[in-house]
Design goal:
The complex is a heterodimer of chains A (114) and B (115). Chain A has 114 residues and is mainly β. In chain A, strands 2, 4, 5, 6, 9, 10 and 11 form a 7-stranded mixed beta sheet that branches. The termini of chain A are far apart. In chain B, the strands form 2 sheets. In chain B, strands 2, 4, 5, 9, 10 and 11 form a 6-stranded mixed beta sheet that branches. A 5-stranded antiparallel beta sheet of chain B has the order 1-3-8-7-6, with no helix packed on it. Chain B is globular, with a radius of gyration of 13 Å. The chains are: A mainly beta (114), B mainly beta (115). At the A-B interface, strand 4, strand 5, strand 9 and strand 10 of A face strand 4, strand 5, strand 9 and strand 10 of B.
Chain lengths: 114, 115
């Protein structure tokens, strides 16, 4: 049973560029959440997708956007990259919005902005 | 609004010694509480969770945590540390109002285990 898979694992971009990160949820899960983990910090909630709609959003600017596809996979897009966007981006999946609160995390995509 | 405070960014123990990682939370409604572990260059793995049932929660790898409402704490313990326990540990909180799967994490505690 495949867990949460993310791609790419590492990438380097320059300021002002745009990036797309991808996530496939654990089998049987229909809800995807994205978190940003800056170096030395705990993960911070970006947003959550369920039934192809953004259900909740954390305190992140509109430069951060996402999408969920009919097969429940998801993309995170970041426009106009800033140096401060350098972080590990974690995708987490759950079932029906995670009613029991349990999230399963992928290994993350490490973004470096130069 | 919720928040989590983890006391001590680094905790060092000897192999075989007691592990105690501290977590205090703030929540205006009954919380769900979690401990996750992160090994280098990996994602987060759930160790254990409290969801309003038994206040003493047992998790994987011999870890357990006790929910103490009066102290707003959810400290993580393990009787005897093993070298493989060296990792970063995150405490997290969620609740019904914010969405059970929307977690607020602490800044993490790095556990160092020496032989």
């Amino acid at each position: 049973d495949a867990g949460v898979t993310q791609s790419p694992t590492h990438l380097i971009k320059t300021r002002g560029q745009q990036v797309t990160l991808r996530c496939s949820p654990k089998s049987g899960h229909d809800t995807v959440s994205w978190y940003q983990q800056a170096l030395g910090q705990g993960p911070q909630f970006i947003f959550q997708y369920y039934e192809e709609e953004e259900r909740q959003r954390g305190n992140f600017p509109d430069r951060f956007s996402g999408h969920q596809f009919p097969n429940y996979s998801s993309e995170l897009n970041v426009n106009a990259l800033l140096l401060g966007d350098s972080a590990l981006y974690l995708c987490a999946s759950s079932h029906q919005g995670g009613a029991n609160g349990e999230l399963f995390f992928g290994e993350g995509s490490r973004l470096t902005v130069l | 609004a919720q928040s989590v405070t983890q006391l001590g960014s680094h905790v060092s123990v000897s192999e075989g010694a007691l592990v105690l990682l501290r977590c205090n939370y703030s929540s205006s409604v009954p919380p769900y509480l979690f401990w996750y572990v992160q090994y280098p260059n990996q994602g987060l793995q759930l160790l254990l969770k409290y969801t309003s049932a038994a206040t003493l929660v047992k998790g994987i790898n011999g870890f357990e945590a006790e929910f103490k409402k009066s102290e707003t704490s959810f400290h993580l313990t393990k009787p005897s540390a093993h070298m493989s326990d060296a990792a970063e540990y995150f405490c997290a909180v969620s609740d019904y109002e914010s969405g059970y799967s929307t977690l607020t994490f602490g800044k993490g505690t790095m556990l160092l285990v020496s032989p």
